[in-house]
Write a structure and sequence with these properties.
2 helices, Jelly Rolls, 42% strand, six-stranded mixed β-sheet, mainly beta, Peptidase domain protein, single chain
Length: 587
């Protein structure tokens, strides 16, 4: 007896000696029964419904065997051989594996040898008589059990699988057929459907599609093809839906949100003549929902009734102001609501991005002088800025003011009205924002309302240290905390509550070591440091055990203004500030 390899590329039938540690047991009772069969049996094939898979690696039995099986055989075949070859194959919606213990005790394995998709198949030429212990496994990870058919034949491999849930373009559509020719009238054609179903599309359709639908398509579109138009299939629903379209050449086209507002749309360029099968699906549920399908040569229709427009003739939503050059206070700040349902790209052009309301958020009537004009916005979301200038030109920005905040500077600005929109980069990120109008720079959101004042005398100590100082660590006892919120007074990355003046002012001349600044307290404390470079450095728990610590690698020479805060508001807490070149202080 020998095992025939079906193709050189596929992992066809493979032979290996069973290792001593095999955990598959040929003597265990088969899970799905057994049969006694003589050569020349009819009907041919013998087909057995079962569940493929298991939790045990098939490689435990045959070194080169992939996939997962159970410890007991799926089926036992007691075969009285004759002059025929013996074919064993498995058909399933998943990638199957066959593992067989032959009558002589040898192990045989196959992955895709049946030549039909991912179905396993094994051919025994001049087969032995005796018991064939057959395991039907799955290529994927163990534990799952998938419906499958085992086929036993002397004529060839079989791929029939009555358990299949794979979407089939050959099944009659649930809602009908559209027969269309190039340039068809009454464009778009519409069809009301119930989107959804039990079949998970991502298991089929080349893994390209998402959502859950029925096995049968919802619609057939018999299309004569076009040299002029593309074919558009889109859907509108109040729920998040997806579309899957199989073209006449078998190619899948799938989409989730391309037709706007969680509505899917598939554009097929240079459409072939023939039948297009359309499935309507739910993104993450098998519950069916009402939906309308649109078939068009003009575009995705039914989703947007009017073109996207930013209309500066509409009243501004947050008011207006008239400012002359040299105005005070500077910056002039306005609270607005960023975002909206108008696609700025469609309304203005390719230089702009984001989502805003159709009406401006604010109008600035500006009398220019010798200063530049700075417009910026701050927000917790990724904001954008769109401005229509006095000469009618559009100006847009996303992140120029730093930290995902937009900013526009007008050099030698014109006098006149500036219509201003504060948008969001994401469609669903609307939220509060602050518009800043300035002649000094991008401001307002970056300048704290109550800044920590490092020009004030330190509350507890002025310290001068040089590299190699002793004792190390240098300790300062103090009271941590205060009534100023560090986040609003220093930097958005800072946390806790501190006093307006620094607690310690350190003048430091570095040597060759790093500088460690930390604090120890029974309370959860924080550190806020303004370094010699003017930058803010903040930390909460960097020294461990709720103690903050900041490490300066290759520290600069100069003044370090240090605040020791408490993470939460309340009474001040006893604390020790530690300055070291050896590491964070823990006692």
């Amino acid at each position: 007896m020998k095992l025939k390899l079906m193709t050189g590329a596929a992992m066809a039938a493979m032979l290996a000696i069973a290792p001593a540690h095999a955990i598959q047991d040929p003597n265990a009772a088969p899970a799905y029964g057994s049969s006694d069969v003589n050569a020349g049996f009819v009907p041919d094939p013998i087909s057995v419904g079962l569940r493929a898979g298991g939790a045990m690696p098939a490689s435990e039995a045959s070194e080169w065997c992939p996939g997962f099986v159970s410890y007991q055989p799926s089926y036992n075949l007691n075969y009285d051989a004759g002059s025929f070859d013996l074919y064993l194959s498995a058909a399933s919606d998943v990638d199957t594996v066959l593992l067989v213990n032959a009558p002589d005790g040898s192990w045989h394995c196959d992955d895709d040898g049946a030549g039909s998709g991912l179905n396993a198949g094994m051919l025994f030429e001049a087969p032995q008589s005796g018991v064939y212990n057959i395991w039907v496994g799955t290529f994927g990870s163990g534990g799952g059990y998938e419906p499958a058919m085992l086929h036993i034949s002397e004529l060839g491999f079989e791929d029939d699988n009555p358990y299949s849930q794979a979407p089939s373009a050959d099944l009659p559509p649930e809602y009908g057929t559209l027969s269309l020719s190039e340039g068809f009238a009454n464009d778009p054609r519409t069809l009301n459907v119930e989107a959804g179903g039990p079949v998970e599309l991502d298991r089929f359709a080349d893994g390209m599609c998402w959502g859950q639908a029925d096995q049968a398509p919802d619609l057939w579109v018999d299309y004569a093809g076009s040299d002029t138009f593309d074919l558009y299939v889109s859907m509108q629903s109040d729920s998040d839906t997806t579309l899957a379209v199989q073209a006449p050449d078998g190619a899948w086209h799938c989409d989730d949100d391309s037709a706007e507002n969680l509505n899917p749309g598939v554009q097929i360029r240079d459409p072939l003549p023939g039948r297009y099968a359309v499935w309507t699906a739910r993104y993450s549920s098998n519950q069916r929902v009402p939906a309308t399908v649109y078939v068009s040569e003009l575009g995705f229709l039914g989703m947007v009734d009017e073109p996207a427009v930013l209309d500066y003739s509409l009243p501004s939503q947050s008011g207006s102001v008239s400012l002359d050059a040299g105005f005070v206070p500077d910056p002039y700040n306005v609270d607005v609501m960023a975002g909206g349902d108008t696609d700025v790209y469609e309304a203005v052009g390719e230089s702009c991005r984001g989502w805003a309301d159709s009406a401006p958020d604010f109008d600035l009537n500006y009398q220019a002088g010798d200063f530049d004009l700075y417009l910026s916005a701050t927000s917790d979301s990724d904001a954008t800025l769109i401005v229509n200038a006095p000469d009618g030109s559009w100006h847009c920005d996303d992140d120029s003011a730093g930290e995902l905040n937009p900013g526009l500077v007008f050099d030698e600005p014109m006098s006149g009205r500036y219509d201003i929109w504060v948008g969001t980069y994401g469609e669903y990120d609307a939220g509060p924002a602050t518009l800043h109008i300035s002649e000094l720079g991008f401001g307002g959101g970056f300048l704290p309302e109550t800044p920590l004042d490092y020009s004030l005398p330190a509350n507890y100590a002025d310290v001068e240290l040089s590299g190699g100082f002793v004792p190390d660590p240098y300790l300062v006892e103090l009271m941590a905390g205060g009534d100023v919120e560090a986040e609003s007074a220093a930097d958005r990355s800072c946390r806790g509550f501190v006093t307006l003046a620094p607690d310690v002012e350190l003048t430091f001349e570095p040597g060759g070591l790093d500088l460690y600044i930390s604090a120890v307290s029974d309370r959860d404390t924080t550190l806020v440091i303004n370094g010699p470079d003017g930058e803010w450095y903040c930390n909460d728990d960097g020294a461990g055990n709720f103690n903050p610590g900041v490490r300066f690698i290759e520290p600069q020479a100069g003044v370090y203004d240090i605040w020791v805060g408490t993470y939460s508001s309340g009474p001040a807490a006893d604390a020790v500030l530690a300055i070291s070149e050896l590491g964070f202080h823990e006692d």
